[in-house]
Amino acid sequence: MFILGNIVITLAKLTDVVLTIFFWLVMVRAVISWVNADPFNPIVQFLHRTTEPILEPIRRLLPPMGLDFSPIIVFLLIMVVKGIVVQSLYDLGIQLKY
Q1: Domain regions of the chain by residue span
Q2: Which residue from 53, 51, 15, 19 is spatially nearest to 32, judged by alpha carbons?
Q3: Which segments of the chain does DSSP mark as H helices, in order?
């Protein structure tokens, strides 16, 4: 069963890395939104394409407030997923390994 445990631990670590990268993409997009960034810049376009599929549905659920709180909601969701899903996968992998 140690092989299955290693697979689950690797899945937990991979999920953690993907969520961390997405956290930083949303963070950079939020910071760039505070300045007047060129919308035709390839980096700005990449940030918009990668984060908008998550931010837009959350934005639709929130009432109009003048400020965009969707990045904060995404940060909280990432922390919850990391705390529950990633940690549970890691713990399961450790139990399967030993």
Answers
A1: 2-97
A2: 51
A3: 2-34, 42-61, 70-81, 87-97
Q: How far apart are CA 1 and CA 97, in angstroms?
A: 6
Confidence at residue 73, expressed as pLDDT on a 0 to 100 scale: 96
Successive 10-residue mean pLDDT values, the chain, 98 residues:
92 97 96 90 95 95 89 96 96 92
What crossing angle do the helices spanning 70-81 and 2-34 adopt, rounded to 10°? 170
| Residue located via tokens 């919308």 | 39
Burial class (CB in 10 A: 0-12, 13-18, 19+), 24: exposed
**What pTM was estimated for this model as a whole?**
0.88
The DSSP 8-state label assigned to residue 66 in this structure reads S
